[in-house]
Amino acid sequence: MSSPSPYETPARRRVLARAKTPAAAPAPAGLHTISLLVRDAPGVLVRVAMVFSRRGYNIESLVVSASAESGFSRMTVTCSGDGAILEQMIQQLSKLVDVVHALDHTTSDRYETEIALIKVRCAGPLRREVLEIAEHFNAKVVDYAPESVILRVYGSSEKLDAMVSLFAPEQIVDLVRSGKIVMARALDMT
Amino acid sequence: MDLKVPTGAEKLIQCLEREGVEYIFGYSGGAAMPIFDALVDSQIKLILVRHEQGAAHMADGYARATGKPGVVLVTSGPGATNTVTGLLTAHMDSVPMIVLTGQTITSMLGKDGFQEADVTGITYAVVKHSYLLKKAADIPRATREAFYIATSGRPGPVLIDLPKDVTQGPCDAPFVDEIDLPGYAVPSNGDPAAIRRAADLLQSARRPVLYVGHGAVISGAGKAVIRLAEKLRAPIVNTLLGKGAADETHPLHLGMLGMHGTAYANKAVDGCDLIMSIGARWDDRITGKLDEFCVDAIKIHIDIDPAEFGKMVTPDVAIAGDAKLVLEELIPLVSAADTKEWLDQCAIWRQRYPLRYAKQGGLRAQHVLDRLHAVTKGDAIVTTDVGQHQMWAAQFCLSTTNRHWISSGGAGTMGFGFPAAIGAQLGCPDKKVWAVCGDGGFQMTQAELATAAINELPTKCLIINNNYLGMVRQWQELFFDNRLSGVDLVGNPDFVKLAEAYGIKAWRIRRPGDVDRILAKAHAYDEGPCVVVAEVVKEDNVFPMIPAGAPISGMIIEKPREKMAKPTGST
Question: Are the C-beta atoms of residues A143 and A133 closer than 8 Å to each other?
Fold first, then answer.
């Protein structure tokens, strides 16, 4: 937890030079996907959400789901905000009595995925182009209507972003994304 | 053998008895009636207050004076919401407290029933944890957990919301002793590598300062702080809430730092090359302008709450643990550092910038508080309200003993001082307890005069009456062209007559010559509560002062001649 100050003054340098033990490694920067294991207790979602809002963090997506153990749930939060306070905010989340642990998974070795449903307006000749895009992204057509299709696609959030960006905004009737879920690889803890 | 199944309320009271609760500070009402009924047959003494805010502050004062959790019992709706200020006060200052609130019956929850309030919802931001119990069977577990959470780690208030059908219905669940909280960990001993690094840096520093906060009070780390300071030869400063942890009269102690701290404490902090927080959280009253705070110094932070690391300043070394345990591991690793020049410099500052006040021109609050310290020989528990009197009391009533200084720091809650003194007195019946209040704050909870009177508590209340909200008036004078707005308390009652109306002994001090005599009389009076009203000069300012948002180097020691810019800091 002790990253060095961004500035070094002469007095600080003198003290640091006299010391013999090594300084702690600085914390990695740019952290934005957090996984929480929480107790299934009333109010736990409110308590978690309040930490984000109080520290000025914007929640981009939030997935709450069952965990492997009964009585506990998993929350996966992707969020944006001041990177400098992220580590401290994770401590504030960990501090909540109903939060078993809160871990940052932005740069850890993990698998992550997301699923999206995209309803695209595509009557007549447009349809062929839409289906080509779908095929390219391995998306499945799950609803085939006279003037629209629903495409189901999964993969990294970046892949989903890329696919969505290929349609003109007026072509997209509706978009629902599950939000990112992550899991640490091998036997690491998520 | 009595085979009757207890009600939820009876079980709750039995749980409180098992936790060793002596007093409940409460105010009755419909939704809490089963609990008040169960109290009739209990050894626990009910202290009936006159307003729920008073109950919360009494429980707070009791907890700060004894280290044991204070317990509050109120009814639903407005009864519960009236404790919110008390919850905030306790939460900001890490005070263990249990607040039990009655609630409408479970089938009416969320339907705007009579005196229903979403109390857990309202209080999420001001509690360490909370429960809304929907089954009587949860009472023993929740109560055990609540006491454990409130008192362990960084203490704080825990609220239990109790629907009336839950407390009225049967509860045959057994008592619970085991705690099963997988998400709740309490750091105790610090990381040895971090402690070694801290010791190395302390040893390498030439101008170190030990900065002591409320965590040191809670952990009882004061003696260890003194041992470390003596071994290392380093000066000590403490925060408003850190007063009393380490004896403020010790030669290495420079007193309180921060916005209204001593000039020499602040100069030491401004000039140090290493500052180590021992259970203090780098509050904005301490750091002033953060960008300019101790830029030249190594920062070490000892805190039991890891969420404090990096919140205000980024420490070079962070040690998560109990202040006392960490210091005990740290002390053997250090020896005398090369600090002679530094201590000499601190001594020069101490001599050059003493605390002082005008002896002429009427009765001064500083004079009264200076003499209060002399009359009590520093041996009384002193509680304060919030404002100028609080800062003067902090400056002049030096604390020598742990848990003998009780003040609302983080929240700055007016109305705190007098009820907190009542709670402290109940917790420490053999101690002399003085509440120091201003005329503004005292009136916010003055109804508790009745509570002090009926319980025949020898609590003493010193009202520093300047007929103003003095601290705000001071700011308006210094920063707002003396355009006074909302600070003139014209219409104050005659506080002596007010006390007498409750059957309470009261004295008035008008002249400096009367101060010692009347304070001594009040100090000796033990037949019940008493009130001393000091009619002080209307316009006086607290100095030294670091305007909010200014760097420590911007400290002013006396009133400046030219107009000052409006402060940029929070408040």
Answer: no
Which one of the listed residues B22, B33, B108, B115 is annotated catalytic? B115
From chain A, pick out residues whose CB is under 8 angstroms from the CB of B315: 1-2
CB contact under 8 A, A95 and B193: no
**B348 and B369 inside one domain:** no
Closest partner residue to B204 among A15, A39, A92, by Cβ?
A: A15
**Which amino acid, B178?**
E
For range B229-237, the mean pLDDT: 98
Exactly one of B17, B45, B114, B311 is catalytic; name it: B114
Instruction: For the beta carbon of residue B340, count every other beta carbon within 10 angstroms.
Output: 11
Residue B471 falls in the annotated catalytic set: yes
Asked if B51 and B447 touch (Cβ cutoff 8 Å), the reply is: yes
User: Which residues in chain A are contacts of B183 at CB distance < 8 A?
Assistant: 38-39, 96-101
Could you give the C-alpha distances from B66 to B61, B217, B220, B428, in angstroms and in order? 8, 11, 12, 7
- pLDDT tens-digit readout, B23-44: 999 999 999 999 999 999 999 9
Is position B543 annotated as part of the catalytic site? no
Residue of chain A nearest B309, judged by CA positions: A88
Are A122 and A167 in a shared domain? yes
Q: Residue B204: which of A18, A43, A99 has the nearest Cβ? A: A18
Identify the residue among B204, B274, B319 best suited for mutation to test binding to A, counting A beta carbons within 10 A and taking the highest: B204
The ipTM, to two decimals, is: 0.90
Which stretches within B93-163 are classed as H helix? 119-123, 139-151
Place of tokens 């040895």: B192
User: Which residue range is the domain that position A115 belongs to?
Assistant: 111-184
Calculate how close chain A gets to B274, using CA atoms only, in Å.
8
Q: Are B388 and B471 in contact (CB under 8 A)?
A: yes
* Residue B205: half-sphere exposure toward Cβ, Cα within 13 Å: 29
| Predicted confidence band of residue A1 (pLDDT cuts 50, 70, 90) | very low
Residue A4's pLDDT band (cuts 50, 70, 90): very low
Are B411 and B474 within one domain? yes
Contacts of B304 in chain A (CB under 8 A): none
Task: Check: CB of residue A41 under 8 Å from CB of residue A75.
Answer: no
Q: Do A66 and A74 form a contact (C-beta atoms < 8 A)?
A: yes
Q: Which of A67-81, B70-84, B197-211 has the lowest mean pLDDT?
A: A67-81
Is the Cβ pair A97, B295 closer than 8 Å? no
What tokens appear for B538 in the block? 């209307």
Q: Considering only CB atoms, which chain A residues are within 8 Å of B299?
A: 5
Residue A163 falls within a domain, yes or no?
yes
B115 is annotated as an active-site residue: yes
> What does the alpha-carbon distance between residue B406 and residue B387 come to, in Å, rounded to a whole number?
14
**Domain housing B148:** 8-168
In a domain, A4, yes or no: no
Residues A133 and A176 placed together within one structural domain of the fold: yes
Q: With contacts defined as CB-CB under 8 Å, which chain B residues touch A19?
A: 197, 200-201, 204
**The tokens 């006040």 sit on which residue?**
B357
Please check whether residues A120 and A100 belong to one and the same domain. no
Chain B nearest CA to A128, separation (Å): 52
Query: Catalytic site residue B52?
Result: yes
Separation of alpha carbons B48 and B73, rounded Å:
10
CA–CA distance, B175 with B491 (Å, rounded to integer): 54
CATH of residue A180's domain is 3.30.70.1150
One-letter amino acid identity for B482? Answer: N
Cα of A15 to nearest chain B Cα, Å: 6
Q: Are A104 and A118 within one domain?
A: no
Phi, psi of A77 (to 5 degrees): -120, 125
